[in-house]
Amino acid sequence: MVPTPHATLAPLLARHAGRAHELLPLLHALQDSEGYVDPAHVPAIATALNLSRAEVHGVITFYHHFRSTPPAATVVQICRAEACRSRDGEALVAHVEACTGARIDGEPCNGVSVESVYCLGQCALSPAMTVNGELYARVTPARFDAVLAAMPVSVGKEGRHD
Prior knowledge:
By secondary structure, the protein is of the alpha+beta class. It folds into two domains: 9-62; 74-159, Glutaredoxin. 40% of the residues lie in helices and 11% in strands. β3 (129-131) and β4 (134-136) form a beta hairpin. The longest helix has 12 residues, at 23-34. It is elongated.
């Protein structure tokens, strides 16, 4: 038995029904809306697109972009491609880890996760990062501190809330 689709999922399934080649756009739309792809939705997605559950699960787990658990309240993504690394990107990573208490590509700490991404398209303005999807370029430790301080709930040194 296929579970009843979630309110966000139902219109996506209707729009992409029977079109297996539209799995990626459906998954992107679902994650954009919900923040992650709930594993409980895999059977409904598979049925709607005439795919096996294994095929849908395989795509979700193959692409690093897709999450199968809800994201942290604050998601910091730091570019670790060559241009950003050459402009002190790794020093920025160390600073962000020290400020938030979260380790890059590790478990969230105090509602903050820090993730690696490889190219945000800002090579001439490196290092670059996103915070909850908002892009920042030429990021220095001081600029990161300012961005974090402007957040509704800021996280202080060693992950303590200010």
